[in-house]
Design goal:
Chains A, B: It holds the Pfam family D-ser_dehydrat. The structure is a homodimer. Chain A is α/β, with parallel strands linked by helices. Chain A is about 30% helix and about 25% strand. In chain A, helix 3 packs parallel to helix 4.
């Protein structure tokens, strides 16, 4: 068991560690970016799914968030959060659970993308004088995720997609307005919100999520620099395999996920401070590391020594961990426990 | 919330469902196979990590198991299991935790594969008159995993690898014997233990794990038939995308894992009863399904309808679920809760 104030090296590995100072800085920068732009920030919780990070992202207001599962919605509702947007086209098997959340919260928003979904809602009227904002079709807002920003490389490309998505959304709002419908609008994605374009000020909200943690993928896209990435997986060398010119580490796919296959010259992750090392493959609890070129100098990697992985996709890596170890300047502060399931 | 006796369709999706009758049959067949062969079965817990399945695999004895993490070891020890083999080359950061388990259990076995690991153990003598079986190097046994069976296709190839691994292990035992050392021997892998060769009777133990669940990968290898696979992920159609000739389902990589990429013509899984459908790609909470050929007949897949995924790798899929829903003949019996972490 580790205690507060200990060094990261006190942790048993593999361990997901979160640099809380970077998280706070990333969150604060997004808050300021949105304030400057004049658009409401509605942060997405799906990357971390913890109370502590949600508090940092909402500046402690516990209001105006997005979630990807009803498990998250209930978890946050249970802890005093409100104005929760469930960013998922209404699943027909979860109408009752959505109705229950609508009845207990001041504001719970669901997405509809099909007339049949509207019928499903109408079949379950809300109690206590509440109502779905759907009668006669009263639209609350339009929600779009510019997932195509993930193919971008560099700020210029990101901003081109951000501009395109914003323009499409605003044009659609104009058409709705011409039909007598006014409503809110929200677009998302960490790349576009890390480098917003001016026209995004005309939207009601933005809903990025990954930006408090960031990851190698976001640095490759250009959303952030590698120094901004707030999460790492600590792992230890547990084997020398000179006949294969490889090291074994104690991080398999249970500690990192299989996301990022074939995306990086360094394999499934980057190994901090060792640009010539590649995480070649993983089994359930083992990782195989080899040099990108040349023979491995085993004296640099004694058995038991620590290596630090920067994850390709922090959403996928965080999902594998039942607990995150939080530190400031390499000293442990405590643990964050995410919610899981659906 | 679902109740006992309800149909599987009462579950919110995605959901991992376990056919307990198949689990029991697979477990019983392995028990009988080992009895017939005359070799001790030491089942591996890493696929499911639950008490209930461990009871089925050990025939209720709660003795003689293998685990892949110390979290599993502690979980099983806390629930009265003993004679636990931690099938992991002794990690230097976990010597104290291994020592504590050795002191509280009748028998806790660790693996050594390096002289430095032996030094680590010797630095932490056990209390209460217990001792590591290492002084003067007294070997308890040899442990091998014939992971190369996973490249096999069909019983003949599996048995060739099983024979080779057994022969190598027995030859090594002979060399040890010539040096005055007698000890136990154990080999593993679900393929080799599903189709054992006669010489495996000369080993002390076998340690397969995946066989109670099995999966598509094991059926491709030839360890089992598809009918033997005891786990499924239930998912629902949540979107029609005729412009892409695709369906959206509510199972992303959080519900299935990314294991199996590029391995099957049907994508990341098989969709039961729909051999022409392919699970093309997944995001965190969405899956994209398209036909292998031809246009999609959307009338066969109404919004809200259930699809059943047979996982490529049940170890990886089970890891993504905080709870497994157990059924007999399609009627829910209850839930199994796995342990997680390290």
């Amino acid at each position: 068991m580790t205690t507060v104030g200990e060094a990261l090296s006190a942790l048993c590995t593999p361990a997901l560690v979160v640099d809380v100072d970077k998280v706070k800085r990333n969150a604060q920068m997004m808050i300021e970016r949105c304030q400057k732009l004049g658009v409401q920030l509605r942060p997405h919780m799906k990357t971390h799914k913890t109370l502590e990070c949600a508090d940092i992202m909402t500046g402690g207001s516990r209001r105006c968030i997005v979630v990807s599962t009803l498990a998250e919605a209930c978890f946050y509702a249970d802890h005093g959060f409100d104005d929760i947007l469930y960013a998922y086209s209404l699943p027909f098997d979860k109408v009752e659970r959505c109705a229950a959340l609508s009845e207990r919260l001041d504001l719970f928003q669901v997405l509809l993308d099909h007339p049949q979904a509207l019928e499903q809602l109408k079949k379950r009227p809300l109690r206590d004088g509440r109502r779905w904002h759907t009668e006669g079709v009263e639209l609350t807002g339009i929600y779009a995720h510019c997932g195509n920003t993930y193919n971008c490389r560099g700020v210029e490309q990101i901003q081109a997609v951000a501009q395109e998505t914003t323009s499409f959304t605003l044009q659609f709002m104009e058409k709705l307005k011409a039909a007598g419908i006014t409503c809110k609008s929200s677009i998302g994605s960490t790349p576009s919100c890390s480098h917003p374009v001016k026209d995004m000020a005309q939207l009601s909200e933005v809903h990025p999520g990954n930006y408090t943690f960031y990851d190698v993928q976001q640095s490759v896209i250009g959303s952030c620099s590698l120094e901004d990435v707030a999460v790492r997986v600590l792992t230890r060398v547990i084997g020398h395999c000179p006949h294969r010119n490889q090291l074994l580490i104690d991080c398999g796919w249970t500690g990192l996920s299989l996301d990022g296959a074939g995306k990086l010259p360094t394999g499934y992750a980057m190994i901090e401070g060792h640009p010539n090392l590649k995480l070649l493959s993983m089994t359930q609890e083992h990782g195989r590391v080899e040099p990108i070129s040349g023979p491995l100098d085993y004296s640099k990697y004694p058995l038991g020594s620590l290596l630090t992985l920067i994850p390709y996709h922090s959403c996928a890596t965080a999902m594998m961990h039942p607990v995150y170890h939080v530190h400031s300047g390499g000293r442990l502060l405590g643990k964050w426990t995410p919610t899981r399931g659906w």
